[in-house]
From TrEMBL:
One of its GO terms (molecular function) is metal ion binding. Gene3D superfamilies: 3.40.190.80, Fructose-1,6-Bisphosphatase, subunit A, domain 1 (3.30.540.10). Residues 12-200 form the Fructose-1-6-bisphosphatase class I N-terminal domain. Its cofactor is Mg(2+). Coiled coil: none annotated. Pathway: Carbohydrate biosynthesis. Homotetramer. This is Fructose-1,6-bisphosphatase. Residues 204-335 form the Fructose-1-6-bisphosphatase class 1 C-terminal domain. GO terms for biological process: fructose 1,6-bisphosphate metabolic process; fructose 6-phosphate metabolic process; fructose metabolic process; gluconeogenesis; sucrose biosynthetic process.
Length: 339
């Protein structure tokens, strides 16, 4: 009996990483230190996002990036925070960011063995509306003797050692997965300033009648994509119920909902964007690994497994279908039928 007991079995991200490292006898601790630097960048980006409209940090920076996006002030701030935390971690050799034209090589870390790809603020067009945005990241381990050039990053997503994202929503939600591992979700507890494990071993529903895409692009879609969407909206089978549509316009928020509720997110390549809109290195591949490790699947507009797609350049784009296993399978089957 005695005093009311509280739950003391709290798994912070820090404890989770320590326990993960203990599973790998050969671990040097470099990956763990890199993840601590990652964790700090999420905390500091969250801080600025939540204060932006109070300290005149909303709106445009007045510049645009290599992929032609108008940069928001927070795109630039998020990028600068991320770059400095990766550089100062001493564990990253090379970094690709949506907001940097060239890969950043950290000459001060000549023996660092990791490469990081990142989308510092995903969904930034939504920022001024107060809608959830996020940060997407991927971690590659450099091959022995790698010189630390951008060619070290033109790899398929199957080479990722870890990937994930943080969504700055009602609370900051971090989702991380290691190669061949489980998917684990953490919620920021601002009271103690720690990410707390709240969604261990995330397994997504095999199917769910929710689709998520920008139907404003329908005019530009290929026939198989139109046939697929119509099969969801106007079901032919007896008693079939139409799917529900949910589209936020921030990939991280649409992906997080899809991961939790099931369904499918799609940004197909089309006549307007023949290579698709989303970038392979820091949007499609990291998300594909999270979804595959949660039991879902991800393919490009040619129905190729997303994780096997090799980017031609660091800002290369791809169409993407990402979601519950059976929902993506429907897209694949319809594309097969259309030959
Ligand atoms: P970013 O803000 O990092 O440039 O990414 C925006 C992307 C992605 O978040 C979202 O799924 C997609 O753009 C939305 O595009 P549309 O506005 O064309 O639907
Ligand atoms: Mn952008
Ligand atoms: Mn993005
Ligand atoms: Mn972005």
């Amino acid at each position: 009996a005695g005093a009311e007991r509280i739950n003391t079995e709290i798994v912070t991200l820090t404890r989770f990483l320590t326990e993960e490292q203990a599973k790998h006898k050969e671990a040097t601790g470099d990956f763990t230190l890199l993840c601590h630097a990652l964790q700090f960048s999420f905390k500091s980006i969250a801080y600025y996002i939540r204060r932006a409209s109070l300290i005149n940090l909303s709106g445009l920076a007045g510049s645009s990036n290599t992929t032609g996006d108008d940069q928001k002030k927070l795109d630039v701030i998020g990028n600068d925070l991320f770059v400095s935390s990766m550089r100062s971690s001493g564990r990253v050799r090379i970094l690709v960011s949506e907001e940097e034209e060239e890969a950043l090589v950290f000459h001060e870390n000549p023996h660092a063995r990791y490469a990081v790809v990142c989308d510092p603020i995903d969904g930034s067009s939504n920022l001024d509306a107060g809608v959830s945005v996020g940060t997407i990241f991927g971690i590659y381990k450099l091959a022995e003797g790698a010189k630390g050039t951008k060619e070290d990053l033109l790899k398929p997503g199957t080479d990722l050692v870890a990937s994930g994202f943080t969504m700055y929503g009602a609370s900051a939600q971090l989702v991380i997965t290691m190669k061949g591992g489980t998917v684990n979700g953490f919620t920021m507890d601002n009271g103690v300033g720690e990410f707390i494990l709240t969604h261990p071993n995330m397994i997504m529903p095999k199917k769910r009648a929710i689709y998520s895409c920008n139907e404003g692009n329908s005019l530009y879609w290929d026939e198989p994509v139109k046939a697929w969407i119509d099969s969801l909206k106007y079901p032919q089978e007896e008693g079939g119920k139409p799917y529900s549509s949910r589209y936020i316009g921030s990939m991280v928020a649409d992906a997080y909902r899809t991961l939790l509720y099931g369904g499918i997110f799609a940004y197909p390549a089309d006549k307007k964007s023949p290579k698709g809109k989303l970038r392979i290195l820091y949007e499609c591949a990291p998300m594909a690994m999270v979804f595959e490790n949660a039991g879902g699947q991800a393919v490009n507009s040619k129905m190729t497994r997303m994780l096997e797609v090799v980017p031609e350049h660091i800002h290369d784009r791809s169409g993407i279908f990402l979601g519950s296993y059976e929902e993506v399978q429907k897209v694949i089957d319809i594309h097969k039928k259309h030959g």
